[in-house]
Design brief:
Helix content: under 10%
Family: Belongs to the peptidase S24 family.
Protein name: Peptidase S24/S26A/S26B/S26C domain-containing protein
Oligomer: single chain
Order of helices and strands: EEEHEEEEEEE
CATH architecture of the domain at 4-10 and 50-139: Ribbon
Keywords: Autocatalytic cleavage, DNA damage, DNA repair, Hydrolase, SOS response
InterPro entries: LexA-like (IPR039418), LexA/Signal_pep-like_sf (IPR036286), LexA_repressor (IPR050077), Peptidase_S24_LexA (IPR006197), Peptidase_S24_S26A/B/C (IPR015927)
Domain Peptidase S24/S26A/S26B/S26C: 24-135
Largest sheet: 8 strands, antiparallel
Shape: globular
CATH class of the domain at 4-10 and 50-139: Mainly Beta
CATH topology of the domain at 4-10 and 50-139: Umud Fragment, subunit A
C-alpha cells in the first residue's frame, strides 16, 4: 500500500495571493493573450474550502499513476465529504494508509488502484476499513529538478 506523509494546512495569512489571467488558456492551438492579470487567486481559499476538515499528505508509491497522482505529489484531502463510489480516498485498511479509488456495489466494497500492476483490494467483513477523507486536489510538478541541473529552457547558473 502507498505510504503517506501528512501535513497540516497552512494558515491563510501565511499564503500569498497569486495573479490569475481570466482569459481562457486553450490546451489546443495558441491564441493571443493580453498579458494582464485580471484577478487574484487565494490558494488557501481554493484548496481548503473547509479548512477545519482538510489536510494535505505527500504520496509515495505508483498505484495511482493512472489517476494523475504521482510519487511525491501532494494531495488535498477533505474529511467532510461523504465518500461515494468512484471517489479517490485516503483509507486506512488494517492499520495501513493508502490512496485508492473507492468502489462500492450492493454487498461488495473494494479499493481500486489506477495502475494495472496493483490488483484491487477486496474488503471483507473482517477488514478494518476507515476512510479518512476524499482527495479533492493533486499538486505536482510537470518536471522534477535534479540537484545541480538547470530547469528546462534555462542555462545552468554559473558557479563562482
Amino acid at each position: 500500500m502507498s505510504e503517506l506523509v501528512f501535513y497540516s494546512p497552512v494558515k491563510s495569512s501565511q499564503l500569498t495571493k497569486l495573479p490569475v489571467f481570466t482569459c481562457p488558456v486553450p490546451a489546443g492551438f495558441p491564441s493571443p493573450a493580453d498579458g494582464q492579470a485580471d484577478e487574484m487567486l487565494d490558494l488557501h481559499q481554493y484548496l481548503f474550502k473547509q479548512p477545519a476538515s482538510t489536510f494535505m499528505a505527500r504520496v509515495t508509491g505508483e498505484s495511482m499513476l493512472g489517476a494523475g497522482i504521482h510519487p511525491d505529489d501532494f494531495i488535498v484531502v477533505n474529511r467532510a465529504i461523504t465518500p461515494l463510489d468512484g471517489h479517490v480516498v485516503v483509507a486506512v485498511v488494517d492499520g495501513e494508509h493508502t490512496v485508492k479509488r473507492l468502489r462500492q456495489e450492493p454487498g461488495r466494497t473494494w479499493l481500486e488502484a489506477a495502475n494495472d500492476l496493483d490488483p484491487p483490494l477486496e474488503l471483507h467483513e473482517d477488514c478494518d476499513l476507515r476512510i479518512w477523507g476524499v482527495v479533492t486536489h493533486v499538486i505536482h510538478p510537470l518536471f522534477k529538478k535534479r540537484a545541480g541541473a538547470a530547469w528546462p529552457g534555462r542555462s545552468p547558473r554559473p558557479t563562482a
